[in-house]
């Protein structure tokens, strides 16, 4: 698997920047603090980074489908699955793992199916539909659960302990990669890239662009459901307030990973690298002691790294188009 | 020769967009009237000077914050730095005044800094186009982080700044402010003046028309000798300046600096632009439409508050209404008709 990943990085120029940044950050982290490379450190890192990686993966197929379809609703959708899981299912005594996982994945996919159908049949710009989804779900989340609280099912409490690298959270992540890996080999994936790059051309070539869009959204919804599961494991409770934070972080991770918000370019590897880079940045900054202003320094540094990496990305990609 | 082509071009563009804008504006007026009638019937005291004053006051803040978003939407960009610049200005102004700067000087400094952040945003994000909104987000983070570091050095209250707000600034935007003895806060007048001026600029100046030209077709605009880069940078600078102004006026409204004051404006500005009928893809719409969108959004919120809905429920209802509102006048043609 790492061999294919390596080949992909050397072939795809849009992955140069995220991969380079990843290596630099890894060296810096190794230099600053060894805490990350212990069993506990790595387990904790996987636990914290997985919800972000999965939300970034969740918007990847939707963005790749083009038309500027940035899914703003992904953060609140994850929150919606999280709070309904805690309030409606666990609150009513339903704690069987199969029921919980089916609920999370099914709800994510169902919501995205609705969004896709609205985009296709009402024919309003996707970003407006997802903005609407963002507002509705942010409100509904707070109506379902007015403040953070509740408890995750018993069997999930051990997931959030962060003592072992090979935890169920890692399985969620690997499961998502496996789904993506299977999709990459299918006709759907090619059609998705074609639709994103030029929808009209794809349509005239006989691609069923509507079907492609529906599948892209539903795959994104499944990933959002998995993200909600890992998020529930991370906080062991419900939290209706983190939606907009996760939306902004996921979109940022996507762009840091070299995807184009106008569609056609992007992939799971880039989004994953972008999300891991964001985690590493905040981890690295937390090893410095800035006293009371540390939160602000993190925010500023984060913003500047985002700006820098976007500029480098432009440089690399524009050279490709010239060549 | 070139000017003849230019004139016919602008004339044609003006004609078609005026027609489309006409439709969206009349629908907007109907919506607004419907909401007002509904409010008068359902909520006792909805039609009263107090309520009108509070609606207009809240609409003025949203309207000022939406100026930049409208201009950006007209060329197909989104500015996500608006809430961060508002928050930054809201805490930077009091801390500059605590540091001993006279209030007017401090306000000019904040305004200039806001404009500079906007200009950087425009200049850096020009090459990115589709990704420009992430650049604005990044710069917003950087700016607000820097301001917070500055304000919290030597103070133990991160994110909140306490300073005496001058009486005239308080009067400018407080609920019980007076405009030359008339019983409404002057910020409403400021908003009205800016809206009229902007409307005039958009329709009667070279710059205003080139904004629509760039939004309509980049290639055509470039052939006409319009500098896309200049347009792009100027509108982002205006957006930064207007956000800084909103942040400072909000200080007079709340009485204390708080960095999170801008957060609600992240997506409400986009919603106001969209409800007004300005296409997020660029080229069609204008600030007049956004004013209508702002009023519809504020009256709707006020109506929902009057009906006893909590903040989350209001947000959900507004979200549900966006798609049908936009669908009335901004449906895109089927893909088979786009070829």
TrEMBL record, chain A:
Source species, domain of life: Bacteria
Q: Fetch the PANTHER family from UniProt.
A: ABC TRANSPORTER PERMEASE PROTEIN YPHD-RELATED-RELATED
The protein's name is Monosaccharide ABC transporter membrane protein, CUT2 family
Tell me how this protein sits in the membrane. Multi-pass membrane protein
Q: Cellular component terms, GO, for this chain's entry?
A: plasma membrane
- Spell out the Pfam families in the cross-references: BPD_transp_2 (PF02653)
Asked if the keyword Lyase belongs to this entry, the reply reads no
Q: Which GO molecular function entries does the Swiss-Prot or TrEMBL record give?
A: transmembrane transporter activity
Cellular compartments annotated: Cell membrane
Q: Which UniProt keywords apply?
A: Cell membrane, Membrane, Transmembrane, Transmembrane helix
Q: Which organism is it from?
A: Rhizobium lusitanum
**Transmembrane residue ranges:** 15-35, 41-65, 77-94, 100-120, 127-145, 165-183, 211-234, 246-264, 271-290, 296-317
InterPro entries, sorted? ABC_transp_permease
Taking the first listed entry, what is the main subcellular location of this protein, grouped into a coarse class? membrane
TrEMBL record, chain B:
Membrane topology label: Multi-pass membrane protein
**One Pfam match:** BPD_transp_2
This protein's major location comes to membrane
Indicate yes or no for the key word Nuclease.
no
Q: Which residues cross the membrane?
A: 25-43, 55-78, 98-120, 132-151, 179-201, 231-253, 265-282, 289-307, 313-330
Fetch the CDD domains from UniProt.
TM_PBP1_transp_AraH_like (cd06579)
A single Gene Ontology CC term: plasma membrane
GO MF entry, a single one:
transmembrane transporter activity
Q: What is this protein called?
A: Autoinducer 2 import system permease protein LsrC
């Amino acid at each position: 698997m790492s061999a294919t990943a390596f080949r992909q990085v050397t072939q795809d120029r849009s992955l140069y920047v995220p991969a380079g940044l990843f290596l630099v950050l890894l060296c810096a982290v190794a230099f600053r603090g060894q805490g990350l490379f212990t069993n506990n450190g790595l387990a904790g890192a996987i636990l914290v980074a997985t919800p972000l990686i999965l939300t970034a993966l969740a918007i990847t197929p939707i963005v790749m489908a083009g038309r500027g379809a940035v899914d703003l609703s992904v953060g609140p959708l994850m929150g919606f699955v999280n709070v309904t899981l805690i309030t409606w299912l666990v609150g009513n005594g339903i704690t069987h793992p199969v029921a919980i996982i089916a609920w999370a994945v099914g709800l994510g996919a169902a919501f995205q199916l609705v969004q896709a159908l609205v985009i296709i049949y009402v024919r309003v710009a996707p970003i407006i539909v997802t903005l609407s989804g963002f507002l509705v779900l942010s409100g509904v989340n707070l109506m379902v659960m007015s403040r953070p609280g509740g408890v995750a099912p018993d069997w999930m409490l051990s997931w959030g302990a962060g003592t072992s690298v090979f935890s169920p959270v890692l399985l969620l992540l690997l499961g998502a990669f496996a789904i993506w890996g299977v999709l990459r080999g299918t006709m759907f994936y090619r059609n998705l890239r074609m639709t994103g790059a030029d929808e009209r051309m794809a349509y005239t070539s006989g691609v069923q662009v509507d079907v492609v869009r529906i599948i892209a959204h539903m795959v994104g919804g499944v990933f959002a459901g998995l993200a909600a599961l890992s998020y529930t494991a991370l906080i062991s409770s419900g939290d209706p307030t983190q939606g907009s934070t996760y939306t902004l972080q996921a979109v940022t991770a996507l762009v840091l990973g070299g995807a184009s918000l106008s569609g056609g370019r992007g992939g799971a590897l880039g989004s994953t690298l972008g999300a891991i880079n964001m985690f590493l940045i905040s981890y690295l900054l937390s090893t410095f002691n800035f006293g009371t202003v540390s939160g602000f320094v993190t925010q500023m540094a984060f913003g500047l790294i985002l700006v820098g990496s976007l500029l480098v990305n432009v440089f690399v990609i524009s050279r490709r188009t010239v060549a | 020769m070139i000017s003849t082509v230019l004139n016919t071009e602008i004339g044609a563009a003006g004609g078609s967009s005026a027609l489309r804008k006409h439709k969206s504006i009349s629908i907007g007026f109907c919506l607004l009237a419907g909401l007002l009638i509904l409010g008068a019937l359902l909520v006792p005291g909805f039609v009263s000077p107090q309520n009108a004053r509070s609606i207009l006051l809240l609409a003025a803040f949203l309207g000022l914050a939406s100026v930049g978003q409208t201009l950006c939407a007209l060329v197909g960009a989104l500015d996500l730095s608006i809430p961060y610049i508002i928050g930054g200005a809201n805490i930077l102004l009091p801390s500059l005044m605590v540091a001993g700067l006279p209030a007017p000087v401090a306000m000019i400094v904040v305004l200039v800094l806001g404009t500079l952040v906007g200009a950087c945003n425009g200049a850096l994000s020009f090459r990115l186009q589709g990704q420009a909104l992430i650049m604005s987000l990044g710069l917003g983070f950087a700016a607000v982080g820097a301001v917070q570091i500055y304000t919290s050095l030597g103070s133990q209250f991160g994110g909140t700044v306490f300073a005496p707000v001058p009486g005239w600034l308080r009067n400018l935007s407080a609920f019980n402010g007076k405009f030359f003895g008339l019983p409404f806060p002057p910020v409403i007048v400021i908003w009205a003046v800016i809206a009229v001026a902007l409307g005039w600029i958009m329709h009667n100046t070279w710059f205003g028309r080139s904004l629509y030209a760039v939004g309509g077709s980049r290639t055509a605009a470039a052939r006409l000798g319009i500098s896309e880069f200049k347009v792009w940078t100027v509108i982002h600078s205006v957006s930064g300046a207007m956000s800084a102004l909103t942040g400072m006026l909000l200080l007079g409204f709340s009485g204390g600096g708080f960095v999170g004051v801008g957060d609600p404006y992240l997506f409400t500005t986009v919603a106001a632009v969209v409800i007004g009928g300005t296409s997020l893809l660029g080229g069609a719409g204008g600030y007049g439409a956004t004013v209508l969108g702002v009023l519809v959004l504020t009256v709707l919120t006020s109506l929902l508050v009057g009906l006893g809905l909590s903040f989350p429920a209001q947000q959900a209802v507004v979200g549900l209404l966006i798609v049908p509102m936009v669908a009335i006048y901004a449906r895109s043609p089927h893909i088979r008709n786009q070829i």
